[in-house]
Amino acid sequence: MKNIKRVFIYVFLSLAAIVSIFPFLWMLVSITNKSSDVTKGRLLPGTHLIENMTTLFESVDIVPALVNSTIIAVITTVVTLLLASLAGYGFEIHRSRGKDIVFNILLLSMMIPFAAIMVPLYRMFGSISDTAPLFGIDSLGAVILPTATTAFFIFFFRQNTKMFPKDLVEAGRIDGLSEIGVFFRIYMPTMKTTYAAAAIITFMNSWNNYLWPLVILQSPEKRTIPLLISNLGSSYSPDYGVIMSAIVIATLPTALVFFLMQKHFVAGMMGSVKG
Amino acid sequence: MKKFYLMLVLLVGLAVLAACSSGDEEASGGSSAEGAGSADTITAWAWDPAFNIAALEKAKEAYNGDGDFEVKIIENAQDDIIQKLNTGLSSGTTKGMPNIVLIEDYRAQSFLQAYPDAFHPLTDVINPEDFADYKIATTSHNGEQYGLPFDSGVAGLYVRTDYLEQAGYTAEDLTNITWDEYIEIGKKVKEATGKNMLTLDPNDLGQIRMMIQTNGSWYVKEDGSTPNLAGNETLAKAFETYKKMMDADIGKIVSDWSQFVGAFNSGDVASVPTGNWITPSIKQEAEQSGKWAVVPMPRLDMEGAVNASNLGGSSWYILNVDGKEEAADFMLNTFGSNADLYQTLVKDIGALGTYSAAAEGDAYAVEDEFFGGQQIITDFSKWTDEIPGVNYGLHTYAIEDILVTGMQDYLKGTELTKVLENVQGQAEAQLK
């Protein structure tokens, strides 16, 4: 009986695994095929890998897009981690009368869909374009600014800080650390897993962000990877071999970040902290 | 509980604030003098590197006016252009907006109506009579000509002559037929070859659009905004024909563009009724050379319907930002008056324009070996002149979304008049 149950579980899990892995497999196979083979649904590896890659790097010019996406994702991740953790720490560790109200307002801001604030945001960035070109329309700064630190990450850090042993803060103070010192030398190392989880999520969000970069970036040389891929698919006769190659390359960094931090990620999402 | 109310008040306050601020947008929006390109650079947005972008590059080479400016061509996907234009134009700042933009004809009216001041009228710049008649209604608004008509979406029926032959037909037998005759032929072809006659995508009713335009009808009435679904005999006929195709089992169901292209590339279908811009995709499969021909689009079996229709097609628009005079000069000098440019476009990139004077050139008469030596460009441009002009109006895609579910109901057996009344009601409620 137990064996039958086991067989059943394995069959079910294998099916689920195939369903979720198949698109990736198809993507990987497709980068070696030419476009008309991809549309025909060919599942065998072909001989067009080098051709697709050459097109991608020479005529599509994927490198600048990779550089832009990396710059944006890395800066966004660093800024988000720093600001959100500072805020989360402050909200949880320090006592103040109005903090819960402020926190609730922050949470409310999570409920406003981005599409609703997009037009006003565009207007705001338009109005500073002349005085602060680094953050104006068509600048990488304008992509980073609205997405660096969101209410969600402040909430995320505050929730995780609840597990943080407050005695450590006291101990630090007694040993003569300043508030900043406590944060950087005690809080940060202890909360490593939370940082890792937040880093993965921010990085992925930023890397895959589409709508805001789309409206705010205008020059082709500032384009990010998702915008580039969107362009590739816009032709009346898209080259699916090349599109698949671009998608594979676009997937690699997020996959890499995930695998590097996977161990911490799971721990961070569970909210456990090793005191 | 008290806290909850406080939050509620705050939220409502925010909403009111947002509503108010949109009111004064217009007041301050109009005064923004900051243009997209300064006068020495003009930017143009379009999609498809092999087609529209290539056409712009050719135009740039062909420009021989006095203007001293750089043309910066930027490629964006069509949906992306729509998103960017909508955000930019509704924010009221012209920063980052291009000088020249390509807009699909089905969507043009909604832009012209939503942002009447954002576009630069070309009434005094080009002569609308130089272009195919059917393009003018969609590119003008309130008596002003805004768009410079560009590529023709003239549709044709691409047929596999080898499959037809197996079933005892020639391309001649499919010339100037009705959809009903087409279905009969389709059954025979399927019997003889086992191949489906065409692809059908339940989420894309381009098929219906092409059918109803053969009889000069559209989803909306002449005014461009009143839904014209219930009681629209042409639409009812198109729905019936569509169902006949499904019942006859001659359609291969596809769900997206890649499957659509894949179906004819792999030889799964005997014909492709669609816009002429599909030619490069058809020719992509070099092994099928000589096995194709193009015949006029079948018509609906109704009084007044013709064997010519349209699918897609787009036109150039100039935004009302700094550099508009330069942009207008560039467009007039190239797409607006240069017949030779259109020859180049046909020859080098297969883009068929709607500039009437261009049709006389040699490039249009070229015999295409892929299509068994047929002069397909000549044929297409002949059919272009026969396309019934309709006002595509404001809501083509919004109504089509509603029709997609209506079609499913109809195919499942709901009575047609009821289906059309139903979608009419939904469309009226949604588009109010």
TrEMBL record, chain A:
SUPFAM superfamilies according to UniProt: MetI-like
Residues spanning the membrane: 7-29, 62-89, 101-122, 134-157, 194-212, 240-261
Cell compartments where the protein resides: Cell membrane
Gene3D superfamilies noted in UniProt: MetI-like
Topological category with respect to the lipid bilayer: Multi-pass membrane protein
One Pfam family hit: BPD_transp_1
KW Transmembrane helix (keyword) present: yes
Keyword terms: Cell membrane, Membrane, Transmembrane, Transmembrane helix, Transport
Name of the molecule in the record: Carbohydrate ABC transporter permease
